[in-house]
């Protein structure tokens, strides 16, 4: 009854506050669309400059999808390199080939080295080599970067926006005095926490549905598993974000201090979520990752969407996320003791 | 009034926050159906005392009883109507939505809920603004809505923390009329104030300063005991400031 009253009130507040509702629903779509455009999977095409005798390499380089500019003198080529018009300059010193890279962009460097490697292989062995047969266990040859980032970013945005909005809402109960007013009614502390979970829960279900649908159907992010599981994971992630946000709001004096939790709580989680390979990190930092909710959500979402795995692969992640949410809720009930002991 | 059976009994109460002693050894009793005023300058500990009465806060020493039950006790909160110093309203919601929310927290439902909402809004003269959003309310209107919410569940004990701040004299008069009417129906009212002419309307007054109880008496009793002409002078007398 009282939980229902809080749930209803949160829904009413949302309906009256169109802007916050838009932030929760539309902002993640906007950012995901932008990411999809940035990581659209087109590979970088390196620009080579050739001068002198090296011009004979032009055809071979172009065969490997590189752009080639021919310069009559080496000096002209070097000027072009200095002005970043080309990524690498190839010159011939007698029979020795010299390659100078512009060098300031790692992506361009790698692309240059890749083309060079392929080309030299081509030059050295004229006879037909035995081509290995290549197949993919998960994903495919045309899998793009966004397909890898997508599942994680769905988790990240759900977590980020729910954390912030739920945290600030709960904080405002305290700063506007309504929390004290609530605590002067026969409302139990756990009823407040549960009311918040239910009220925001309804919105996060809608949010999870919209974000998952948009990413898969509109942005075309790789999706080989069950949509139901994607929904379940995004929902569990938002529950963890909601309970963590409301808990941490107890340690913020105002909205600005709540924002200060973003670089402390949200950003490290993103870096440790598996967005970048964790194996290269120091062991202790990998362990820290194991203590963050986002890690489990991202792992499960990748297993579902990229690898098409089912319940047995995500069961542990599900239990861990439920555990996190319950822990945060209990801690929040305890933190409210600061305002009323009973 | 029913002497000997106090509605509120405060016994040797002290409250400290860390090293700072906010209330010191306060003892007083509030009888049924009286309006009991707590008078003191800001920072004197009025709000702290009120929070002990409402069960939001706990004493460091001594005991507080409301209707014979030792506080804090969750079940007793149903018997208390509380109006905080800050308006504590959900400004993005309409007055009606605020009232419905708090009514639900106090367990009012259906026909009884709408009847009570109508009754309290008439009482504070806001029935025309029921569907207006609270962020469109003026300061005085918000104060009245807070009072209306405190009265929703017809509590036998009403605790008001500076109830008439920001309310114009005409409306203040009508609110006092209603408070007196509630008294006649048996409701016990405890209110804090630092407005002297308002203090004179209380049946009895407690004067506190720096967390200490200076005196408890009827307004006229206080004037006689201090041989002064106004509550303000009496207050200064007890505070050790002689004019």
TrEMBL record, chain A:
Keyword Phosphoprotein assigned: no
GO molecular function, a single term: ABC-type transporter activity
Membrane topology: Multi-pass membrane protein
Residue ranges occupied by any ABC transmembrane type-2 domain in the UniProt entry: 110-339
Signal peptide coordinates: none
Highest taxon of the lineage: Bacteria
InterPro entries documented for this protein: ABC-2_transporter_component, ABC2_TM, ABC2_TM_bact-type
Transmembrane in keyword set: yes
GO cellular component: plasma membrane
Regions that span the bilayer: 21-39, 152-171, 192-216, 228-251, 258-278, 311-336
Record's subcellular location: Cell membrane
Main location, first listed in the record: membrane
Record keywords: Cell membrane, Membrane, Transmembrane, Transmembrane helix, Transport
Family: Belongs to the ABC-2 integral membrane protein family.
UniProt-recorded name of the protein: ABC transporter permease subunit
Species annotation: Paenibacillus monticola
From TrEMBL, chain B:
Top-level taxonomic group: Bacteria
Record-linked CDD domains: ABC_subfamily_A
Domain ABC transporter: 8-235
Gene3D superfamilies, A to Z: P-loop containing nucleotide triphosphate hydrolases
Record keyword Nucleotide-binding present: yes
Pfam families xref list: ABC_tran (PF00005)
UniProt xrefs under InterPro entries: AAA+_ATPase, ABC_transporter-like_ATP-bd, ABC_transporter-like_CS, P-loop_NTPase
GO MF: ATP binding; ATP hydrolysis activity
Sorted UniProt keywords: ATP-binding, Nucleotide-binding
PANTHER family, per the entry: ABC TRANSPORTER G FAMILY MEMBER 20 ISOFORM X1, ATP-BINDING CASSETTE, SUB-FAMILY H, MEMBER 1
Protein name: ATP-binding cassette domain-containing protein
Origin species: Paenibacillus monticola
């Amino acid at each position: 009854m009282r939980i229902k009253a809080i749930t209803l009130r949160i829904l009413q507040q949302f309906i009256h506050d169109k802007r916050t509702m838009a932030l929760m629903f539309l902002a993640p779509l906007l950012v995901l669309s932008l990411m999809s455009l940035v990581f659209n999977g087109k590979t970088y095409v390196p620009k080579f400059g050739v001068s002198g005798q090296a011009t004979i390499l032009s055809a071979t380089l172009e065969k490997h999808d590189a752009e080639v500019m021919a310069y009559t003198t080496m000096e002209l080529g070097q000027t072009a390199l200095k002005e970043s018009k080309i990524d690498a300059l190839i010159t011939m010193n007698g029979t020795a080939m010299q390659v100078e890279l512009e060098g300031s962009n790692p992506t361009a460097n790698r692309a240059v080295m890749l083309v060079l490697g392929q080309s030299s292989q081509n030059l050295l062995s004229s006879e037909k080599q035995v081509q290995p047969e290549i197949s993919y266990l998960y994903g495919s040859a045309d899998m793009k970067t966004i397909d890898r980032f997508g599942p994680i970013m769905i988790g990240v945005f759900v977590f980020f926006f729910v954390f912030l909005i739920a945290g600030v809402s709960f904080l405002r109960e305290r700063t506007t005095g309504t929390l004290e007013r609530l605590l002067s009614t026969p409302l139990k502390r756990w009823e407040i926490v549960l009311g918040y979970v239910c009220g925001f829960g309804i919105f996060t279900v809608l949010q999870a549905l919209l974000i998952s649908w948009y990413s898969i159907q509109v942005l075309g992010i790789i999706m080989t598993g069950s949509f139901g599981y994607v929904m379940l994971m995004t929902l569990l992630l938002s529950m963890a974000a909601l309970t963590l946000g409301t808990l941490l709001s107890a340690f913020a004096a105002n909205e600005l201090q709540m924002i200060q939790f973003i670089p402390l709580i949200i950003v490290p989680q993103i870096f440790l979520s598996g967005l970048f390979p964790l194996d290269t990190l120091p062991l202790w930092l990998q362990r820290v990752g194991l203590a963050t909710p986002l890690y489990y959500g991202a792992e499960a979402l990748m297993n579902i969407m990229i690898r098409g795995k089912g319940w047995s692969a995500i069961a542990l992640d599900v239990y861990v996320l439920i555990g996190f949410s319950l822990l945060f809720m209990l801690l929040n009930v305890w933190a409210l003791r600061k305002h009323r002991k009973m | 009034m029913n002497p000997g059976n106090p509605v509120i009994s405060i016994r040797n109460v002290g409250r400290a926050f860390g090293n700072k002693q906010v209330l010191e050894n306060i003892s007083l009793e509030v009888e049924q159906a009286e309006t009991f005023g707590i008078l003191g300058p800001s920072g004197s500990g009025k709000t702290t005392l009120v929070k002990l009465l409402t069960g939001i806060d706990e004493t460091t020493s001594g005991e507080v009883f409301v209707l014979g039950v030792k506080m804090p006790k969750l079940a007793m909160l149903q018997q208390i109507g509380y109006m905080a110093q800050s308006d504590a309203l959900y400004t993005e919601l309409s007055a009606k939505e605020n009232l419905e929310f708090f009514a639900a927290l106090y367990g009012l439902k259906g026909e009884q809920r709408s009847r009570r909402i109508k009754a309290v809004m008439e009482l504070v003269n806001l029935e025309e603004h029921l569907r207006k959003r609270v962020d469109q309310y003026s300061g005085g209107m918000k104060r009245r809505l807070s009072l209306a919410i405190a009265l929703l569940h017809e509590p036998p004990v009403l605790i008001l923390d500076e109830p008439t701040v920001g309310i114009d004299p005409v409306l203040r008069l009508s609110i006092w009329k209603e408070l007196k009417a509630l008294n006649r129906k048996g409701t016990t009212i405890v209110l804090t104030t630092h407005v002297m002419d308002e203090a004179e309307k209380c049946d009895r007054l407690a004067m506190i300063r720096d967390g200490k109880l200076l005196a408890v008496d009827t307004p006229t009793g206080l004037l006689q005991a201090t041989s002064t002409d106004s509550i303000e002078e009496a207050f200064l007398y007890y505070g050790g400031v002689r004019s």
